[in-house]
Design brief:
The complex is a heterotrimer of chains A (92), B (551) and C (162). Chain B has 551 residues and is α+β, with helices and mostly antiparallel strands. Chain B has 17 helices and 21 strands. Chain B has four domains: 104 residues, Sulfite Reductase Hemoprotein, domain 2 (Alpha-Beta Complex); 150 residues, Sulfite Reductase Hemoprotein, domain 1 (2-Layer Sandwich); 84 residues, Sulfite Reductase Hemoprotein, domain 2 (Alpha-Beta Complex), CATH 3.90.480.20; 143 residues, Sulfite Reductase Hemoprotein, domain 1 (2-Layer Sandwich), CATH 3.30.413. In chain B, the strands form four sheets. In chain B, strands 16, 17, 18, 19, 20 and 21 form a six-stranded mixed β-sheet that branches. The termini of chain B are far apart. Chain C is α/β, with parallel strands linked by helices and 162 residues long. Chain C has one domain: TIM Barrel. Chain C has an eight-stranded mixed β-sheet. Classes of the chains: A alpha+beta (92), B alpha+beta (551), C alpha/beta (162).
Chain lengths: 92, 551, 162
């Protein structure tokens, strides 16, 4: 199952998504890691950012189509479902 | 209320700088996340689903107007314009940046506030009866004791790395509004046969994965001995609490495995020795010094008058105004549960507005409650119409305190990193379903409490109707529990059965409530009817109707 | 590993000895297990003797031999394991041990002041803590709210002074 890789930026907590060796704040711009090998490689590469104290809490999550599979990741990607004026959904 | 002296002020300032240095070292990489985490938690800082979250301490739920204004300022300057009142009487912000937190703490220190020990495996911020000093059924104001415990527990060198968190509550009233029996340690102010006031100490209560009701380890602890007794309990816990399994690390598990007799023996053994050393005794002068800060305002000599019963004001009075000990005065609950709102959330405009109201009416203090509302403890009955009008304009006059829409609700999956399911939207739907005020008043006292995971921040175990959100293969389900109570008749709710889907849970609650209304005898609350009839009829109606609806 | 004793850098006079290693000359530190197994020969060496307690071992389990010891080492297997804080207090307050109480293992800068308060007078410093940082750690908080084993005046005592 395709996955994306996420983390929080250490200095401000902002949710980040992995994109080809860098990070983006946008879920949509996050890289789709189509294979388990690609996912593992991304997670391993991301540890360099952890070691450099730039991000914390790296983990992979599954996608269903283009969207996250789990409600948790949908909310994380867009913002609180009860406050459409807040979180990433508000910026769009 | 308590005012800092030079020592308290210096302590909080130095603590802020201590945390500033910890943040600095974290950002430079001198502390890794594993090392930093316990220290940031001890300063109330979490990393949640979207961002950091800062939990600011409101010791025993008491705040002044300048403190409210500072909380509003912080919401505006460092956050997204609002805060959230928690079930432990604290206020938390959902969007602070790590780099700003030392400055937030420095701002808080200017109004005698902090975030010390609002999280972490340490003695947490002490809670108390939110009607303290005003309730008619009170033996003694619990807040001086809570303040003594707050000071003793602040940066306690022996107990900063306990097996797990440790929550303390204090109450001095006949009616338990502080959920004493569900705390790691509870201090109940009691009067003995000789008329002397002392403390009954309970330990081992708690909710979460394995809920237990606390039991007494001290039946009558004399006032000067309180801290020695608490230190004894904490030492027994620190030495013997399980550290091999996070789910079994709370003192409730130790209390169950040792049993009451053994627990009492161990605590008393430590207590005798600590008392003998003498240094922890709380002398009368120190108690008097602290008590003086909590002296009630100078009440005017008034008489009770008939309270308004008509119109919107009358409805608000019926549910949100409570009996005060002084004639001519009343206690008023400011509901943070507007229909369709987020339970416990309060905007910076509302925080400022309440502070202004306090200034205008001369109120020195306000309370936060574990039910996630605010409480004005000393309102002149003759001021009720004017206060109501001001609250109405602020959106804080929802007349539902203690009613079915006054729902305790954790942030759930909308904010929380640990949650399995959303809780706020369900609370909103239930509130909307029961929005009709006449219906709410007809149903009467009914406490719905909801958590989005097993950790039970929303106290679902003690709801008359409790709701627990669970995740089943990626889908949110909601379990019903009936018959819980957090007061002196403490009980853990009974699980009804399999969970309901997001769209069914509101109907299930409604069917349960409707059956209660149909079957209740005169004067019975939901809880009373449930205790008389048991789970069976409620279970039948909840699931039976569900089948019909599905076909 | 630098040793701080009574607030200053000090030479470590002891040799820590594994359970199955031969005893060298001079003061040694052994496990509680070894003390029990070789009690008579260890106590009969006429040398200073230290015992290292794991975080699961209460100093009360040493029994009356404690008075023959000159050092108790409290080992932190993980800095979050807070039992050694209670062991230090029990050593000082209950058992009236007046020898050296040494913190060792995985403790952090941020715990040094607490450790001193509960009765540690020696610190086997982890690599992250320099002697200068050690001094800084003790200076972060001026006053304390609760009595511990360090005899420092509490804020309550300071308040009642004229």
């Amino acid at each position: 199952m395709a996955q994306k890789l996420t983390a929080n930026r250490l200095i401000d907590g902002t949710v980040l998504y992995w994109r080809a060796g860098e990070w983006t704040e946008s879920f949509a711009e996050g890289e789709v890691l189509a294979s388990e090998d690609a996912a593992k490689a991304a997670l391993a590469a991301a540890q360099d950012f952890v070691a450099r104290n730039l991000v914390v809490g790296t983990y992979l999550f599954e996608l269903k189509g283009e969207a996250p599979l789990k409600e948790r990741e949908i909310i994380r990607a867009f913002g609180p479902s009860v406050r459409p004026d807040l979180g990433k959904q508000a910026v769009r | 209320m308590y005012r800092y002296d030079e020592f308290d002020a210096a302590f909080v300032r130095e603590r802020t700088e201590q945390f500033r240095y910890q943040v600095e070292r974290r950002l430079k990489g001198e502390l890794n996340e594993d090392q930093f985490k316990p220290f940031r938690l001890m300063n109330g800082l979490y990393l949640q689903l979207h961002a950091y979250m800062l939990r600011v301490a409101v010791p025993y739920g008491t705040l002044s107007a300048p403190q409210l204004k500072m909380l509003a300022h912080i919401a505006r300057k460092y956050d997204k314009g609002y805060g959230h009142i928690t079930t432990r009487q604290n206020i938390q912000y959902n969007w602070p940046k790590l780099k700003d937190v030392p400055d937030i703490l420095a701002d808080l220190a200017t109004v005698e506030m902090h975030a010390i020990q609002t999280s972490g495996n340490c003695i947490r911020n002490v809670t108390a009866d939110h009607f303290a000093g005003a309730a008619a059924d009170e033996i003694e104001d619990p807040r001086p004791v809570a303040e003594i415990v707050r000071q003793w527990s602040s940066l306690h060198p022996e107990f900063a790395f306990l097996p797990r968190k440790f929550k303390v509550a204090v109450s001095g009233a006949a009616h338990d509004r502080a959920a004493l029996k569900f705390h790691d340690l509870a201090i109940e102010i009691v009067k003995n046969d000789e008329g002397r006031i002392g403390y009954r100490i309970l330990v081992g209560g708690g909710m979460g994965r394995t809920p237990y009701i606390g039991y007494a380890v001290g039946d009558f602890v004399e006032k000067p001995d309180l801290l020695a007794f608490l230190e004894a309990v904490l030492r027994v816990y620190n030495e013997n609490g399980r550290r091999d399994n996070i789910y079994k690390a709370r003192i409730k598990v130790l209390a169950q495995s040792l049993g009451q007799t053994e627990m009492r023996e161990r605590v008393v053994r430590e207590f005798i020795e600590i008392k003998r050393a003498g240094t922890l005794q709380v002398p009368q002068e120190e108690r008097a010094r602290i008590e003086a800060y909590f002296a009630p305002p100078a009440f005017e000599a008034l008489n009770d008058a008939p309270l308004p019963t008509e119109g919107a004001l009358g409805q608000w009075v019926a549910s949100n105004v409570h009996k005060h000990r002084a004639p001519g005065y009343a206690i008023a609950t400011l509901s943070l549960k507007p229909i369709g709102g987020v339970p416990g959330d309060i905007s910076h405009e509302q925080l400022d507005g309440v502070a202004q109201l306090m200034d205008d009416f001369g109120y020195a203090e306000i309370r936060t409650s574990h039910e996630q509302n605010l409480v004005l403890p000393h309102v002149k009955q003759s001021d009720l119409p004017a206060v109501f009008a001001r609250l109405k304009a602020l959106g804080l006059a929802t007349p539902n305190a203690g009613l079915i829409t006054d729902i305790i609700c954790c942030p759930g999956l909308d904010y929380c990193d640990l949650a399995n399911a959303r809780s706020i939207p369900i609370a909103q739907k239930i509130a909307e379903r029961f929005a009709d005020l006449e219906r709410q008043h007809a149903i009467g006292e009914l406490k719905i409490k909801m958590s989005g995971c097993i950790n039970a921040c929303g106290h679902h175990h003690t709801g008359h109707i409790g709701i627990l959100g669970v995740d089943k293969k990626g889908v949110e389900f909601y379990q019903l529990q009936l018959g819980g109570s957090a007061t002196e008749d403490a009980a853990i709710g009974e699980i009804m059965g399999p969970g309901f889907g997001e769209n069914e849970i509101v109907y299930a609650v409604e069917r349960v409530v409707d059956l209660y209304v149909k079957l209740r005898q005169p004067g019975e609350r939901f809880l009373d009817t449930y205790r008389r009839l048991g789970m069976e009829p409620f279970k039948n109606i909840a699931y039976q109707e569900q089948l019909h609806a599905a076909h | 590993m630098p040793l701080i004793k009574d607030g200053v850098l000090a030479e470590d006079l002891y040799t820590a000895v594994d359970d199955d290693a031969p005893l060298p000359e001079g003061p040694v530190i052994v496990s509680l297990k070894r003390l029990r197994a070789e009690r008579d020969s260890l106590l009969g060496r006429n040398q200073k003797l230290g015992v290292k307690l794991t975080s699961a071992e209460s100093p009360e389990s040493i029994g009356s031999d404690l008075e023959r010891l000159s050092l108790v080492v409290l080992e932190f297997p993980k800095f979050r394991d807070g039992r050694p804080f209670s062991w230090a207090r029990i050593l000082r307050s209950r058992l009236k041990f007046d020898g050296e109480v040494r913190a060792s293992g995985d403790f952090l800068y941020d715990q040094i002041a607490f450790l001193q308060r509960v009765g540690c007078d020696a610190f086997a410093l982890p690599p992250s803590v320099t002697p200068a940082l050690f001094a800084r750690a003790l200076a972060e908080m001026t006053n304390v709210y609760q009595p511990a084993a360090d005899g420092v005046k509490t804020i309550r005592q300071l308040r009642s002074e004229p």
